Amino acid sequence: MNWYVGNLPPMPGVFPDYPAPVIRNIGDAEEMVLMRWGMPPPPRNGGPPATNIRNTSSPHWRGWLTSENRCLVPANSFAEYAPEPNPETRKKDVVWFALDGSRPLFCFAGIWNEFNGDRGTKSKPIPGPHLVYGFLTTSPNAIVAPIHSKDYAGDPDDRGRTRRLATRSVGRGEGAPASVAR
User: Fold this and answer.
1) Residue 60: is its pLDDT beyond 70?
2) CATH superfamily of 2-167
3) What is the pTM of this model?
4) pLDDT digits (tens, 9 = 90+) for 72-94
């Protein structure tokens, strides 16, 4: 694997439109590069970049579901907001998910592309081109379902299966939900 990101410092979090390390296929090799989180949204919808892609039957996403545009996004945990506000704070709590308390590394399945438009804020646009990615999502498993209506495709229990998931085309409803624990 080619590692073009160097020795990255620890990242306390990854947020939409910020760079993160992503593993992609390039020819017969794999490489790790920094990409911005968020794919261009469908033109009819407009709005901010799409961070999560669930409707893989949409014509907008179909072209990026080939092995050339598949990627893996390394992570050791992820967070979702609780569905209801906390009665004491009146704010939604952040609920963290990981494989276990030691937060071992796993990967989310995703798609990537080169985007030639501006990213960043309207007051400080960053002109393209940009390498961008989004997570593939699926129905949540029993652990995530009480908190969020979707889960991220991937299989953190088996690196080989995760690699195969990243290199095959995905159709509607396919993909293994991440088996995570709170």
Assistant:
1) yes
2) SOS response associated peptidase-like (3.90.1680.10)
3) 0.78
4) 998 888 888 889 999 999 999 99
Please report the pLDDT score of residue 169 as a whole number. 34
Residue given tokens 């989310």 in the structure block:
108
How many angstroms separate the CA atoms of 108 and 165, rounded?
10
Give the pLDDT confidence of 107-165 residue by residue, as tens digits: 889 999 999 988 888 899 999 999 999 999 888 878 888 888 765 655 444 444 344 33
> Checking DSSP bridges between strand 2-3 and strand 119-120, what pairing results, if any?
unpaired
Q: Are 157 and 134 a contacting pair, CB within 8 Å?
A: no
Pure H helices in 37-145 = 59-62
> In residues, how long is the chain?
182
- Which structure tokens are listed for 5? 């990101």
User: What is residue 110's three-state secondary structure?
Assistant: strand
Strands 130-138 and 70-75: unpaired
What residue segments make up the domains of the chain, in order of their start?
A: 2-167
Q: Would you state the structure tokens that stand for residue 136, as one six-digit string?
A: 């593939």
Run of H or E including 163: helix 159-167
What pairs with residue 30 in β-bridges?
A: 25
